[in-house]
Design brief:
Chain lengths: 497, 106
């Protein structure tokens, strides 16, 4: 039973008024409150975020190769005809996202309070894949501004203000449970991070289900690859996002865990999902990654210094469905998984050799036998002003360098190799989200329409961040055209009289 | 260059004598190479660390410079530095080498 990748969905939630709760802006604003107006002044409007070319690639309205032809800076070369609805998902505006956040809180915990008028406007005028007649009821009742202000007067340990267009529209509460009053893992900030991941992840999974025209009840198993560490003080990072997201999407016949491995999580999750399908344990496994609120505005200082708008103003989310062979979707080659073993060094070069060359060797293929390489796809417009450099470019140069060392291409052909087999970064810097998988949707289409025959997905993880190990992580998998795609057509021809 | 690095280099220079030390850099960022080489040769240009006003005049090279490459067996160099040499490109290597040569001669 060969596992296939049946589809993918991507969502960006534009949340400029939550940028202040990103880890870096939150800490810097605490040190210098005068920073907040500077940040607010450099935040983008929803229309600018929709018209931003990399975002159009993320939701599938533009290909990565088309993005290459748009001159940088991309924030100055907006696509005015762009739509917030994409082939692979959508860009959600902040007011609608607050509505989804309220729905994500519909488990009786009463974490999100929204002002009466604002909530009633969302119920009346909001447009979102989650909004229907029942959703208004699920969102519950709003609060008066006086009630919200009374809650906020208890201080940031108890509640954090929520804004829209810089105007107070609600608050995010500490868990109301008396046992949680001393539990910092259940304070408003970590809970907001968890709920933002749940809401955005659910948006991506819901889009995936709609796109594949399937019933949520068909999904057997869900794996979350979100970065957020959901749990209480006794088990920070305990998990449960997969099931929480599945519950919100009506996947009543599924269960599932969270897989956490820094930026490499989506690759691990897809490999595990594909293995479960191949073993016959489950037929349809969804992998979902919600957005990372902590990373909003992470590199805002570099943007302010360079005169850029604050580009890290969106939560990125993605969802994938791995299923048993349908004779048309690209297959995942489980016989050629790349991995950076514990014995390997942390040298970038050694990690690249392990995750690129080793799996190719297993298949008897060369580097140039892979049509497209998807690496860490961070948008360089976010990382270059903050001196982190062009991450995808560095990765592609290294793969091209290995092709030179293998005498597959000459040094003069390196630039062409990178152009043809690589792509510009277009994903928000949301940790796990840029980990190669933003290209999966484009790859599935390109493989099905014959544009490419295969693609390799490579992610790396900085394990030192958790201070448990200095090891460097890396994983890769290859997808390729389903060999039965052609056979299926042949069978049809035979059946004709 | 971090204050911690400056302190360690100063201590090493005091222990072994600056004339007995050679520094080999591995950064590929030209700006960083210049800052490190200047600090280790002429002192901390930002006047904030232990090397402020201290011109150790250490000999600073880059691992990709021919002067260093020629000291290493070809097989070992290719195994360890072959890919870095290819991805950096000869043009950038020459630029870094020229910059470091000028700093060494100051």
């Amino acid at each position: 039973m060969k596992p296939v990748i049946k589809g993918s969905a991507y969502v960006l939630a534009h949340v400029p008024d939550l940028v202040r709760y990103g880890s870096k802006p939150y800490r810097e604003i605490e040190k210098d409150p005068n920073l907040l107006p500077k940040i607010e002044k450099n935040l983008r409007r929803f229309l600018d975020v929709v018209a931003y070319p990399p975002n159009q690639v993320f939701i599938g309205n533009l290909t990565p190769d088309e993005l290459r032809n748009i001159p940088q800076p991309w924030f100055e070369n907006k696509l005015f005809s762009a739509s917030s609805c994409g082939n692979f998902g959508e860009i959600v505006g902040e007011n609608n996202f607050y509505g989804v956040l309220k729905l994500a809180d519909a488990n009786g915990y009463d974490l999100v309070w929204i002002e009466n008028k604002f909530l009633s406007d969302i119920k009346k005028f909001g447009i979102n894949i989650f909004f229907d007649e029942q959703s208004s009821q699920k969102m519950g009742e709003g609060k008066t501004i006086a009630e919200i202000q009374e809650k906020l007067a208890l201080g940031p340990r108890m509640a954090l203000p929520l804004f829209h267009n810089e105007k107070l529209i609600g608050c995010f509460n500490r868990s109301q449970d008396p046992h949680a009053q001393e539990d910092e893992a259940l304070g408003p900030h970590p809970l907001m991070e968890g709920l933002a991941a749940k809401a955005s992840g659910a948006l991506a999974l819901k889009h995936l289900i709609e796109k594949l025209k399937m019933s949520p009840e068909e999904i057997d198993f869900i794996i979350s690859c979100s970065e957020e560490a959901v749990g209480d003080r006794y088990n920070r990072g305990g998990g449960s996002l997969a099931k929480a997201i599945g519950e919100m999407c009506g996947c009543i016949n599924a269960t599932g865990p969270d897989i956490k491995a820094f930026c490499v999580s989506p690759i691990y999750a897809i490999i595990v999902a594909a293995s479960l399908v191949k073993a016959g344990v489950f037929k349809k496994v969804a992998v979902v990654g919600g957005g990372c609120l902590a990373k909003l505005g992470m590199k805002f200082q570099g943007h302010l210094e360079s005169g850029y708008p604050i580009i890290e103003d969106t939560l990125g989310a993605a969802a994938f469905l791995i299923a048993s062979d349908d004779r048309k979707s690209p297959i995942i080659r489980l016989d050629a998984i790349g991995k950076n073993n514990i014995k390997n060094s942390a040298r970038q070069e050694d990690v690249t050799r392990a995750v690129v060359l080793e799996p190719l060797k297993k298949l008897g293929k060369r580097i140039i036998d892979i049509d497209k390489y998807a690496v860490q796809l961070e948008n360089p417009e976010i990382t270059v002003p903050s001196k982190t450099g062009d991450v995808p470019k560095k990765n592609y140069d290294m793969i091209a360098g290995l092709a030179v060392l293998n005498k597959e291409i000459t040094p003069q052909e390196m630039a062409e190799f990178v152009k043809i087999r690589g792509m510009p970064g277009f994903a928000p810097t949301q940790g796990h989200i840029p980990a190669a998988v933003p290209y999966l949707g484009h790859a599935i289409e390109a493989i099905k329409n014959g544009g490419i025959k295969n693609a390799m997905f490579i992610a790396r993880g900085s394990l030192f961040l958790g201070r448990m190990s200095q090891l460097h992580d890396g994983m890769s998998f290859i997808i390729e055209k389903n060999p039965k795609q052609k056979e299926a057509k042949k069978c049809l021809r035979k059946k004709r009289p | 260059m971090s204050l911690e690095y400056q302190k360690s280099v100063k201590e090493l220079a005091e222990k072994y004598g600056p004339e007995n030390l050679v520094v080999v850099l591995g950064f590929l960022d030209e700006e960083l190479v210049e800052i490190y080489a200047t600090t280790l040769t002429l002192g901390d240009p930002s006047y904030s660390g232990s090397l402020a006003g201290v011109a150790l005049r250490l000999k600073v090279y880059h691992i990709l410079e021919p002067e260093v490459k020629d000291q290493i067996p070809e097989v070992v160099y290719q195994e360890q530095m072959g890919l870095a040499e290819i991805t950096t490109g000869q043009e950038k290597i020459k630029k870094i080498s020229k910059m470091l040569k000028e700093i060494r001669e100051k």
